[in-house]
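Per reviewer request, we include the raw input and output of the structure prediction for the construct analysed in the revised manuscript.
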Amino acid sequence: MRALVANHRHVDSCRNGSQFLRIVRHLIALSCVVSAVAAVAAQSPATGSKAPDFTLSTPTGGSVSLAKETAKGTTVLVVLRGFPGYQCPYCVKQVHDFVEHSADFEAKKARVLLVYPGPPAELDQHAQEFLAKQAELPPNIKLVIDPDYKMTNLYGLRWDAPHETAYPSTFILDGQGKILFEKISHSHGDRTSAQDVLGQIAAN
């Protein structure tokens, strides 16, 4: 009788072990799928592809759609570091450079869209403080905020580290939203200048 009970316990143990192994295998497979999806989602759009559309707000609450901007002609999309806890001096310098060349962009019928990402708390106010360091933006240059990293994540540009927000990046899009040029920097100071962008527009 004892042998029979022991045998039943052994059978139950084997069944439980098999079920456990099946669960582990399912979890591993699910983990691989999730990792693959995350990897795809994190990929930045490549030159020659269509830029993913998005709609963000200006610091004063206005709505700006990328699709509507590109429909007007060549669009330069510049992703700044935004507010990683302070106003990035490299971003201030880069935007100042683009503002100084706004007439040159206008001559090429190009518009500039600046994206200012950061934690959602008071990001609109931080963006307004950032703009206060610049001359008034001309009509062909707009700045929008990305308080929940919606656009940043969509483009695979999230710099997920302490005191970081997004990889500084520049994209040139044609009137159909196709990416003609892109540069994604993995350091604070490696920025595309206005002259670089104007040269790329001329080349395309």
